[in-house]
Amino acid sequence: MQERKLPATLRFMLAARRSELLRLEDLSQTCALVTRISQLVHALQKERGYSNLYLSSQATHLRPRLESLSQAAASLEHELRAALEEIDQNDLGAAEKTRLFTRIAHALHLLDELPALRRRILDRRTSAQDATATLARLIGSLLAVVFEAADSAVDPDITRCLVALFNFMQGKELAGQERALGVAGFACGYFVEEQLERLNHLQECQERSFSTFSRFASEAATQQWQALCASASNLQACRLREIARSTHAKAKLDTQLGELWFELHTQRIDLMQGIESQLEQELLQCCQLGMQRIRQELHSHRRVLENLSDLQHHEEQARLFSVHSSELDSPPADGLSSNLARSTLDLLQHQAQRLQVMQDELREARQALEERKLVERAKQLLIRQQGYNESEAYAWLRQAAMNQGLQLEEVAQRLLTTSTENPSAQPRARLRH
Amino acid sequence: MQERKLPATLRFMLAARRSELLRLEDLSQTCALVTRISQLVHALQKERGYSNLYLSSQATHLRPRLESLSQAAASLEHELRAALEEIDQNDLGAAEKTRLFTRIAHALHLLDELPALRRRILDRRTSAQDATATLARLIGSLLAVVFEAADSAVDPDITRCLVALFNFMQGKELAGQERALGVAGFACGYFVEEQLERLNHLQECQERSFSTFSRFASEAATQQWQALCASASNLQACRLREIARSTHAKAKLDTQLGELWFELHTQRIDLMQGIESQLEQELLQCCQLGMQRIRQELHSHRRVLENLSDLQHHEEQARLFSVHSSELDSPPADGLSSNLARSTLDLLQHQAQRLQVMQDELREARQALEERKLVERAKQLLIRQQGYNESEAYAWLRQAAMNQGLQLEEVAQRLLTTSTENPSAQPRARLRH
């Protein structure tokens, strides 16, 4: 191998770049998986929506449509599983796959139970609420895979794409849950207090997700999002939200509004899918560009280093035949000569600076994931320790943030820190802000 | 392969653990490299100390001792290079090696120039100050490899060991630089203002390093450190520091004190090496234990999963031959049966929790590295933008921290943030606190 001839310094410089390329190729495979997951999630959301309609009414005409949606999701699941088989068979290398694989195992575990759920739905042996909850859990587990992929990505551009995509998927999933909740409410003719709280919670969390998405998304995706927000179906959907908020047991609505709600929210979610596809394409493109760039750099890097190495060889040769220079004032024969040394150092410093910039950018993009993790964990803590439901836990955090003039994630951080330091003595009184 | 028979869920659970093991094995190899580097650094520190003595005096009797110290260092360098060859030839996998390899390339580059420096020293063609500075740069580049190893380690226990070792090495290196500075000062009979400032700086940074070391070190290492602090040679060395501080051009000292200074500080540094060896051993032990634990867990994990899989198989078989249960109230045949599902879920949740705890611990240990990086980068920024030297930059940060009632790293963070946002317009006035 020609590289063997290079001095160790130069060989390690090349190996550093090669390692970067390998890591990117690996990441690119994960991103391909993420786009498959994104498509499966969309199919499952559609299936969930129709399952809900099917279970909420006695109408049998919905059954064929539901079955075809199930089939579409099953076929995407099949493709995802085939892609997973590929990964499984590959050599693991020493890359960090532990968390990603644990998430995948969890998602697969829930997917394993999907056929049974589908049968119960078709046979009407489950409630719309239970079916929705089970499918939401499954979709949540798939989103967790995307989150982990974003959290373990090492390229700042790709991480930004993944953070944008994850947040968009999360927002869209919350929109799906909102649609389901609305269907249930309008079916009764009004919303009870708890449903309204949950509706608020879902809307706030959607806003949070889409605002994070906007921070990391491309110009094109952001414009598509703004167009969606200004679209007629979105504005009408918002108006129906207001109507939902004004209902109570004594102010019932025409249950027909439920169908309009479903239709408008479905249009809204379908528009979202267009943006999701855009984000998927951008992600894959970003991987391609990144690999292309490193391959080119690696190629030119190798050429530069080989030239450096040749230069060293020639200078040494020149010295051997030189009779003019005395031992004392000639450049030292050991190691690289000074010109060469300077070029090598320049290359190294350039590489180190580039890595530093990458690290900073990466930290910035991961910050958004870190904040989400904190809020999620604080919510879980409140649910466990205080017996709150999810909306209540979120409302508590938001209120505490307002009272203390802090960011949501700062409150979450403080809550978690106190709890870790003193896990048993978490006085309920203190928790009331 | 037997694993092929397991359902995909269980296979991914196993793959997650296997990935953890591979990653740990890889880390263990890096740690072995770190201990070699630690030993080479010690030898180079000794060589630097004697080079200094040799260059500061005209005494020729020091030359044989110096040559033998150079040889000792060269032989450790040779072993390190051989170990690096091994790594270089290994498959890279997809692990993050880019930063580590860039650091290694830089260290190798400076090592390449060492033979020439040695010749200049023996021939007295360089000043003590220049030789010290060049060797300090080389040692700094080796410390940077250890830092990077610590920063990319994925196991919290091992990261803690590496953080303790890195900070101890850093403190010891500063002690070595202090020794060199003292030798120069006592040789003149007094210290000029700039030397005294630098002496303060070296002592403060030592304290910072050793205090971080203490936070992450084992009980045994901490006790050894406390014993060192209470040792006679350390106390005497501290007294000589006070004497150094009281000197000026009109209050010269007996230059013989320089030899005492050298001897006491050498004893102090030799004691440090004992602790360093302890830390090296603990690090390697920690790697061994970690791998052993995961191997055992992987083994029992595999057994549990295979049992789960068998169970599934049996339950499916049982169902096939059962004539009692009707299709409707029997558990669904698809996917895992509910008992099995619960066991799988338990295992998954256990694994996810363990990973969460590891992540938290890892973040905590890395925080110390992050803080150091911030302070270093802020210092470099001040040096670049304000023309300060290192001591001045550090003094500026410390003063700013005191004035604003902040931690050093918080000031560093603010300085870097402002500078990134507005790289060109960094008003000198604002920098004066």
Automatic annotation (TrEMBL), chains A, B:
<feature type="domain" description="ANTAR">
    <location>
        <begin position="355"/>
        <end position="416"/>
    </location>
</feature>
<dbReference type="Pfam" id="PF08376">
    <property type="entry name" value="NIT"/>
</dbReference>
<dbReference type="GO" id="GO:0003723">
    <property type="term" value="F:RNA binding"/>
</dbReference>
<dbReference type="InterPro" id="IPR013587">
    <property type="entry name" value="Nitrate/nitrite_sensing"/>
</dbReference>
<dbReference type="InterPro" id="IPR036388">
    <property type="entry name" value="WH-like_DNA-bd_sf"/>
</dbReference>
<protein>
    <submittedName>
        <fullName>Nitrate-and nitrite sensing domain-containing protein</fullName>
    </submittedName>
</protein>
<feature type="coiled-coil region">
    <location>
        <begin position="345"/>
        <end position="385"/>
    </location>
</feature>
<dbReference type="InterPro" id="IPR011006">
    <property type="entry name" value="CheY-like_superfamily"/>
</dbReference>
<dbReference type="InterPro" id="IPR005561">
    <property type="entry name" value="ANTAR"/>
</dbReference>
<dbReference type="Pfam" id="PF03861">
    <property type="entry name" value="ANTAR"/>
</dbReference>
<keyword id="KW-0175">Coiled coil</keyword>
